[in-house]
């Protein structure tokens, strides 16, 4: 019996020794699935982006809203100050008498008392009626004793206006001059040594304050001759820029009279400037606030008759 038990134990030990336990390496073990944090990252990123957008929007609002609020309080007084000066200047000009024939620009020395270039737009001027188209208006036909129905009153094949321009009598055959016919008079100015023709039906006078000569029609229109002293060496354009700094000298056109005097004339042909030596002769056509030019040929005749001794 003891031998049998010993045999069993021996067999058991053999069985134990033949049984080996194998351990699986860690890399081959099946790992339990881990919980994913992907959703958490997504929601966190969205929330963080929203916070950044809110902060940026608020910063932009603070930056751009502040100037808009302060702008009206800064600009308002500046605009009022810049507008006050032009308004005052305009008012002063309008308050000057419109019939002042010798008003001077605000920036010009008032001692000269020179007639200012007209402020009338050229396009607004209208030439008086010329029924026969001879270059003389119907009112000028009466002055020179010609017919407003016939362009060549004396039938010498020259238009009446052309003869007046050349100082001939349009109602008599050439070479009869207007002065010989008595339809014009000769005005002599001994102080400034010049002479001009003017219609017999007109009157002449002098302004004692300015020394200007005024040739007056039966209407309100007048032609004014003013003489300004200047340096002989200065050019006419330089003189003009000095006397009338508010006006553009480049808009003047050159002019030459029948007697060969050269000068400048404004675009409307209402002011003519002729310089001889140390004197500038200004011959101005004053419309007396009218838009219709009735005596353009008379004005041209006076310019062409000018002689400076």
Average of per-residue pLDDT values:
78
Proportion of residues in helical segments = 25-40%
Percent range for β-strand residues:
15-25%
**Could you say which structural class the secondary elements and strand pairing correspond to?**
alpha+beta
For the termini, the CA-CA separation is 181 Å
Largest sheet: 7 strands, antiparallel
* DSSP helical segment count: 7
Strand order of the largest sheet: 4-5-6-10-9-8-7
Provide a quick synopsis of the model.
The protein is α+β, with helices and mostly antiparallel strands. It has seven helices and twelve strands.
For this entry, give a set of tags:
309 residues, seven-stranded antiparallel β-sheet, 18% strand
Structure description:
With 309 residues, the protein is α+β, with helices and mostly antiparallel strands. 35% of the residues lie in helices and 18% in strands. The protein is built from 7 helices and 12 strands. It has helices at 2-18, 38-95, 138-143, 160-165, 178-181, 236-243, 296-305, and strands at residues 126-127, 184-189, 194-199, 203-206, 213-216, 222-229, 253-256, 262-265, 271-276, 279-286, 292-293, 307-308. The strands form 3 sheets. The chain has a 7-stranded antiparallel β-sheet with strand order 4-5-6-10-9-8-7, with no helix packed on it. Strand 5 (213-216) and strand 6 form a beta hairpin. The longest helix is centred in the N-terminal third of the chain and has 58 residues, at 38-95. The protein is elongated. Mean pLDDT is 78; it is low at 15-19 and 66-111.
